[in-house]
Amino acid sequence: MKITVLGAGTCIPYPNFSPAGYLVYINQVPLLLDTGPGTIARMSAQGVNYQDLEYVLISHLHPDHVLDFLMLLQVYNATPGWTRSKKLTVIGCKGIEYFLEEQFRLLDGLKPETYPIQIYEMDAETIHFEGWSLKSVLSLHTPKSLAFRISSMSKSLVYSGDASSPDNLIELARGADLLLCECSLPLGWETPDHLSPDQVGMLAKKANAKRVVLTHRYPQSIQEDVVSQVKTYFDGEVIGAIDGWSIEL
Question: Assuming Cys at both sites, which of 93, 136, 229, 249 could form a disulfide with 122, CB separation 3.0 to 4.6 Å?
């Protein structure tokens, strides 16, 4: 399993910290995990062809996590000299099917013309695919927002999405090889709908995660040493992600 951070930031413009987007390779099959604005272009800059995508996972429906999915759908209908026929599987929070139906109604050129699209709406459950599985729990950032655990060949990636409840994520992150966790703001800037460094550190410690990668960082979190703040509570490896950071598990 290979993970590349395409967007380590938020909706706030900041160099090297673009809106949320992550590329995950599972057995040579690429999937996108959230699709904030600019995700498709940054994926292309990593040498990955959008035509090869088979899966798109959406944690919740805030614009900084979903807007480039609409661009992807337009691209699939509008690429000169190429026609997509391969199925696209979309997995997301409750409401994503309605969201897409409304976008198809409002915006021309999005509704798939030559390929099937399969939509899974998840709550707190597990779905099995060929060679990998996907488990979700509610992250409570919004009433329907999700955190995901991707497991394949004894390796596991847990993605918090945007979250407000570390307690909901402990079992999901139990023993994870990599916990890709939001750390939106530093200590002293706590909000009710995002995780603070002390919450991230305690989550990682209680879950016995092997490695923590901090992402979804507002400028205040980028400008302070939130890695050290997390390590006050968790003595494992902690990395602050930037756009383009990559690891193979």
Answer: 136
